[in-house]
TrEMBL record:
Pathway: Protein modification; lipoprotein biosynthesis (N-acyl transfer)
Organism of provenance: Aromatoleum toluvorans
PANTHER family, A to Z: APOLIPOPROTEIN N-ACYLTRANSFERASE (PTHR38686)
Topology with respect to the bilayer: Multi-pass membrane protein
EC number, as in UniProt: 2.3.1.269
Protein name: Apolipoprotein N-acyltransferase
PROSITE patterns, per the entry: CN_HYDROLASE
Entry's family note: Belongs to the CN hydrolase family. Apolipoprotein N-acyltransferase subfamily.
The keyword RNA-binding appears for this protein: no
Length: 489
């Protein structure tokens, strides 16, 4: 029982490695505790329990803000919302539980071999978590290693899962080292220093280069409270607010957040879109904003629409959020307990081209989509800028906003492109290709971030390989451990 409590506390503490705290060494310390505890077990059942406790602590502390969406804004009764979040976190905890079970049962051999085996298992389960049932890769370990972590230099090469594997490798090596053995202790310290030094060196490499002229951008944060956004009697207020903000802040590229117009475009008042775009077009710029579009078949899309000096273009969200934007099979009963507007959406086409705006090629992604690096690189090398439109007002004043900005920093490093973010309540920002936040607005305030952004061209190694490199290295590490065990007398 003491081991389970220690594992759960260690998992909970790992959240402090992520934004807004960003004590990045805590990830290594937290995972080292799990590896140390699991290494003392020989039964899969015991390792499973330890991994499950670690995962439950991590996800309850790290993503419990989902409760706000279900209860406060989704209308789900408090007991049901709490139970739903507990069950969801328990599902997520199954992935570190699998690592604990397999490591306890099969993690044999020398220190390095066991550490590689642990790291390979960790990468494999994180990849699976990011894919199974459309995926939920939030709090993947690599997200905690944004600059100034020296491991951030590996992000353009191995991506977030590869960096998570390095964290797991270091953690397991630290946990398994017999520290009273000076030779073994020195080997561990040298290895950690070498990995950090190489990461620092890779962080100095400019994998992509500037292209075209800088673009003056106005990123608008509308700060419309989620509980009021869908009230019909207030719709005229929101329409006027969006028009006013676009009118008062002309630029080469003006961006309003996801679903900033909370209704179908074909139901907007006559002439409203022309009124919205006219001041931006008169300035010679383009306006991009979030709105729902409906096609001839009646299918509804969460979309970004551009109007202005360039021909009108649109992007429809491809990776929808289960329950929030569509109902998974057999879960129609969920909506008897939750009231979520526009929850019957259709996926956009998978091969949409970047929008040509302001002399740049802008790859749009909407909210949750920027969690999936393997999907964003499909727009490369054509895209020169990345643009995310989000509405995190669903989650209130929680860890969701800073955690999502940290995810955007990882995507900028992986792609070698600036990442522009226009959000309803935060965090509206510009992230440079090196992961540095060049500007950010305060949360839960109406505001505009006016800033110049430079497009980039070229490909990082991750943009060429995607997650294949991390998956291959993980497979080699796991097989090495398995072969070593099979070869034991």
């Amino acid at each position: 029982m003491r081991g389970l409590i220690a594992a759960m506390l260690a998992g909970g503490a790992s959240v402090f490695a992520f934004a807004p705290f960003e004590v990045f060494p805590l990830t290594v310390a937290s995972l080292a505790i799990l590896a140390f505890l699991a290494a003392r077990e020989s039964r899969a059942r015991s390792g499973f329990a330890l991994g499950f406790a670690w995962g439950l602590g991590a996800f309850l502390a790290g993503v419990s803000w989902l409760y706000v969406a279900l209860n406060r804004y989704g209308g789900m009764p408090m007991p049901l919302a709490a139970l739903a979040i507990l069950l969801f976190c328990a599902y997520l905890a199954l992935f570190p539980a699998a690592v604990g079970a397999l490591f306890a049962r099969f993690g044999r051999g020398g220190v390095w071999l066991r550490a590689l085996f642990f790291a390979g298992l960790w990468v494999g389960t994180e990849l699976l978590r990011g894919w199974l049932f459309t995926g939920f890769p939030w709090l993947a370990l690599g997200y905690s290693q944004t600059p100034p972590s020296p491991l951030a230099g590996y992000l353009p090469v191995l991506g977030v899962y590869g960096v998570g594997g390095l964290v797991a490798l270091i953690a397991a090596r630290v946990a398994l080292t017999p520290w009273r053995n000076l030779r073994a202790a020195a080997a561990t310290l040298v290895a950690v220093a070498a990995l950090s030094a190489l990461g620092y060196g890779l962080g100095r490499v400019a994998w992509t280069s500037p292209t075209g002229k800088p673009v003056d951008v106005a990123l608008i944060q509308t700060n419309i409270e989620q509980g009021l956004k869908w009230r019909p009697e207030l719709l005229s207020n929101w329409l006027e607010s969006n028009a006013r903000l676009a009118r008062e802040h002309p630029a080469d590229l003006v961006v309003l957040p996801e679903t900033t117009l909370p209704l179908l475009a074909d139901r907007l008042p006559d002439g409203y879109l022309e009124e919205l775009a006219a001041p931006v077009a008169a300035h010679g710029g383009d306006l991009v904003f979030g709105v729902f579009l409906r096609d001839a078949r009646g299918a509804i899309y969460n979309a970004a629409l551009s109007l202005g000096a360039s021909p009108s273009q649109a992007y429809a969200k491809q990776h929808l959020v289960p329950f929030g934007e569509y109902s998974p099979p057999l879960f129609g009963w969920f909506y008897e307990f939750a009231r979520i507007p526009m929850s019957d959406q259709t996926r956009g086409a998978p091969d949409q081209s970047p929008l040509r705006l302001g002399g740049q090629r802008v790859a749009v992604n909407i909210c949750y989509e920027d969690l999936f690096g393997r999907e964003l690189i499909h727009s490369l090398p054509e895209a020169t800028l990345m643009l995310n439109l989000s509405n995190l007002a669903w989650y209130g004043d929680s860890l969701a906003q800073p955690q999502h900005l940290q995810i955007a920093r990882v995507r900028a490093l992986e792609t070698g492109r600036p990442m522009l973010r226009s959000t309803n309540t935060g965090m509206t920002a510009l992230v440079q290709p090196d992961g540095r936040v060049a500007g950010v607005l305060p949360e839960f305030q109406e505001g505009v971030l006016k800033i110049a952004v430079q497009g980039h061209e070229g490909l990082t190694p991750y943009a060429r390989w995607g997650d294949a490199a991390a998956a291959l290295l993980a497979l080699v590490a796991v097989l090495a451990g398995a072969v070593r065990r099979a070869g034991r007398p």
